[in-house]
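Annex B.
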Amino acid sequence: MKTVDSYNFAGKKALVRVDFNVPLDKAYNITDDTRIKATIPTVLKIVNDGGSAILMSHLGRPKGGPEEKYSLKHLLPALTEAFGREVKFADDCIGQSATDLAASLQPGEILLLENLRFYKEEEKGDVEFAKKLASLGDVWVNDAFGTAHRAHASTAVMGQFFDDRVAGYVMEAELENAKKVLGNAERPFTAIMGGAKISDKILIIEKLLDNVDNLIIGGGMTYTFTKAKGGQIGNSLLEADKQELALELLKKAEEKGVKIYMPLDNLCADAFSNDANRQVVDTGQIPDGWQGLDIGPKTIELFKDVVSKSKTVLWNGPMGVFEFENFAKGTNAIAEAVVKATEENGAFSLIGGGDSAAAVNQAGYGDRVSYVSTGGGALLEYMEGKVLPGVAALE
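Phosphoglycerate kinase: predicted structure tokens.
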């Protein structure tokens, strides 16, 4: 796989697939610019070499055709600031404006194309659409790890039209860090799995059982485990059809000698609201009319203790409804424990994208862990052992 460092972009027009799918508020202000910042080294390498960069991305889920709220033009002020130079904008990604602006682009200049998903051909992986995009540049750089698990036109199909296919710095770092955890993790290796559903995490949990020493399970999916073991979960989240599977996973873990850590107590609420009445109860003792929305204080101490003794930590998924301040304590405590293990114990910590990345960044710990992945779904699929189309297209 060619990487950015091994390629000289002088005189080249680089078509760079980035992941600018960033959250915007109602006034189109970016509320989390992590993904934009991540692309700075790749883009600057291209322009500093004497090349020009044509950036392409999707934003949101447009319903087939242009929509104002999903226009990438809203990102221009932030991009101009990030790259320290004016960023030009084409109000289309394959039309005349894109062709003309790309053709007149000079070395050191940056052009942003309009949202790729304004064309349904992008997600369909349409070859003709990919060919039109490819005609705008000389070299294809894929730096969008977060969409590497999709076989879309710009993330995978385009590769066939280029002799030079290059992995950007984000792509390179994501793959290196995932391999570090999967291949040669220092022990003890602890994986922390949170989030709402077991069904989203079955494959990764099964794969991890071959690699980890400890598996901590938190978040909404724990209630399905508790119910399967005969506990009372009140109105908590439940995947009723996954109870059998939950017990099978516990059995597999036992057979493989992996220690499983589940909540000892839960912080419950009488409604799904930050202002609901709260009480802490032991696991399996949630009364009717109440629902578990976070882990309790005994659980926090147990999980912190396990993390503190770990040399490798993989974390994917929050411990509770961390969007509600009153139910964010468990997630924040885990974030603190991971930071402490990293800084004081020399542990390698990989935060697996999505909500975990948001929680770590929200708590201001993003730069105090070893690596924060920009791709939740892509990272999980890579760790499940699946071939990512966006990575395969670079090889």
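The chain has a mean pLDDT of 95. The chain has two domains: 13-171, 185-384. Further annotation is deferred to the next reporting cycle.
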